[in-house]
Write a structure and sequence with these properties.
It is a single chain. With 137 residues, the chain is mainly alpha-helical. The protein has a single domain, classed as DksA, coiled-coil domain (Four Helix Bundle (Hemerythrin (Met), subunit A)), CATH 1.20.120. It has helices at 9-20, 28-58, 66-102, 117-122, 130-136. α2 (28-58) packs antiparallel against α3 (66-102). The longest helix is centred in the middle third of the chain and has 37 residues, at 66-102. The chain is elongated and about 60 Å long. The protein starts with 8 loop residues before the first helix and ends with a helix.
C-alpha cells in the first residue's frame, strides 16, 4: 500500500511550480490576470502618491496658536492611520505582483489550491482561498 505524502501550501507550490509555472497566465485567464496586474500597478502608484503627500504633510511646520496645534495633532493622527493602511495595502499589492512574476499568483499559500477568479476580481491581492482565509480568522 502506498503511503500518502502531505505538503503545506508553500511546500506544495514549490513542488508543482516547475510543472505548472505560468499555467495561470495562459488562455482566457491571461486576459483577466493582465487586467488584475494593471489594476494592481495603478493602485500601487496611487498609494505611493498618497504616501508622498502624507510625508509632505507630516513635515509641515506647526502653527503658533495652541488651539490650532491641538486640531493639527488630531488631524495628524488621522493622517498617520491613513498612511499605515496605505502601507499595509501596498505590501499586499507588492506581494501579489511578486507572485505574478514568479508564477504563483492565483494559488492559495496555505492549501495550494487555485483561488477562484471571482475572489481575485474582488480582492486582487488575495493570497488565500476563502476556506483558508475563514479558517485563519
Amino acid at each position: 500500500m502506498a503511503s500518502m505524502i502531505y505538503y503545506s501550501g508553500a511546500e506544495f507550490l514549490k513542488k508543482i511550480k516547475p510543472r505548472f509555472s505560468g499555467v495561470m497566465c495562459r488562455g482566457s485567464k491571461m486576459t483577466n490576470h493582465d487586467k488584475l496586474q494593471k489594476w494592481l500597478l495603478t493602485r500601487r502608484d496611487e498609494l505611493n502618491a498618497r504616501l508622498g503627500k502624507i510625508k509632505q504633510d507630516a513635515s509641515r511646520k506647526n502653527s503658533a496658536d495652541w488651539s490650532e496645534q491641538a486640531q493639527e495633532r488630531e488631524n495628524d493622527e488621522v493622517i498617520d492611520a491613513l498612511g499605515n493602511e496605505a502601507v499595509l495595502e501596498l505590501r499586499k499589492i507588492n506581494r501579489a505582483l511578486d507572485r505574478m512574476s514568479e508564477g504563483d499568483y492565483g494559488f492559495c499559500l496555505s492549501c495550494g489550491r487555485e483561488i477562484p477568479e471571482q475572489r481575485l476580481e474582488v480582492m486582487p491581492y488575495a493570497d488565500l482561498c476563502v476556506k483558508c482565509a475563514q479558517a485563519r480568522e
